[in-house]
Amino acid sequence: MSEQTLFKVTVDNIAIEVPAGTTILQAARQIGGAVAPPAMCYYSKLQGSGGKCRTCLVEVSKGSEKDPRPMPKLMASCRTTVMDGMEVKNITSEKVIDARAGIVEFLLLNHPLDCPICDQAGECHLQDLSFEHGKSSTRYEFQRRTFKKHDLGKHIQLHMTRCILCYRCVYVADQLTNQRAHGILDRGDHAEIATHIEKSLDNDFIGNVIDVCPVGALTDKTFRFKNRVWFLKPMDAHRDCPTCSGRVTLWNRGDEVFRVTARKDQWGEIEDTPEGKPGWICNTCRFDKKHAADWVIEGPREINRHSVIAQGHYAGNVGTTLPTETFKAVNDGRAPHLLMDIHHESEVNLPSIHLSEIAGPSHGTTFKQNSKNA
Ligand code: SF4
Ligand code: FES
User: Fold this and answer.
1) What is the reported pTM?
2) Does the C-beta of 125 come closer than 6 Å to ligand 1?
3) Residue 153, helix vs strand vs coil
4) H-helix or E-strand containing 342?
5) From the CB of 166, is ligand 1 less than 6 Å away?
6) Tell me: the pLDDT tens digits for 312-327?
7) Pocket lining: 43 vs ligand 1, CB cutoff 6 Å
8) Is the distance from the beta carbon of residue 193 to the nearest atom of ligand 1 less than 6 Å?
9) Which atom of ligand 1 lies at the shortest distance from residue 164's CA?
10) Which long-range contacts (C-beta less than 8 Å, at least 24 apart) are formed by 21-24?
11) Average pLDDT, the chain
């Protein structure tokens, strides 16, 4: 058997070797942390996904060892495969940061600012992106799009005004269920998610559209408006399910189960089962098993994604683990390239400087004076 060809690629000055055929996004995810570009439409567990939203744009400053010319335009990292010797800039590129802010503004053109009443708030990828790159106001002066309401049945609520047309839910219906009943109708600024003639989405695994939707366009009717996610305690649980893996996250308040979702990884995607298959869950587990007695509770779930729901959960509570503070652990296993001792640069932190003894706001000369007097 021939050996796998490995390509060396550098993302934000960090080099990694990945098999030929790996996309820039996947290579950056292997490095981890902030080096990985955001992805609103790509979903590694859905074939054909990606290439729709442009949030994952990166700058390719060197095409490859053989052809070192930079790529003339920013590239969608989820759809561009690496070449040997390629050099990529993500957060180290001003062009990328600028373009991403533009994409966020574009995605928000028609998006309602209803986070305060949206069930996705706290775990919404668009909310995180707009927090990181967005502006506090809009330049858009026209009326936002409105839609005729479509009823998708008793389990799933569609808010088309929030949809960013990422196609993930369409791929879920295509790849996981027996028959797709919804899709994107029309094109351009008329495009919308709908069933052709009012149909309910009730195929066995269709509830997974809720988990893959990066925004609050598809939400769980059995959970709607019942609670904010940051008030709930995520618990890993499982049951012996004849249809799916039965491995879920329960979102509890006290003993009450408010909602059931699949388990998600640090990229906000469905986690794999121990057998290495995507842990999609069936409608019965998601919508019908809402009693703690239905489940074997494994313990608190650690939320990996940086998000408001990861804040303040469990750290230091009884039976929980405090986050590790070492640099390597919080930096996805990477050691720092450079560490500066602040004492070489400033005397602010010297134990001999007593901040309480400094009259008024302190500045550089205060410290210089104090250290001379000391
Ligand atoms: S409803 Fe959600 S998952 Fe479906 S296309 Fe819109 S944003 Fe994507
Ligand atoms: S994640 Fe790459 S284009 Fe959307």
Assistant:
1) 0.81
2) no
3) coil
4) helix 342-345
5) yes
6) 544 444 444 555 556 6
7) no
8) yes
9) 7
10) 21/81, 22/81, 22/82, 23/77, 23/78, 23/79, 23/80, 23/81, 23/82, 24/58, 24/60, 24/75, 24/77, 24/78, 24/80, 24/81, 24/82, 24/86, 24/88
11) 86
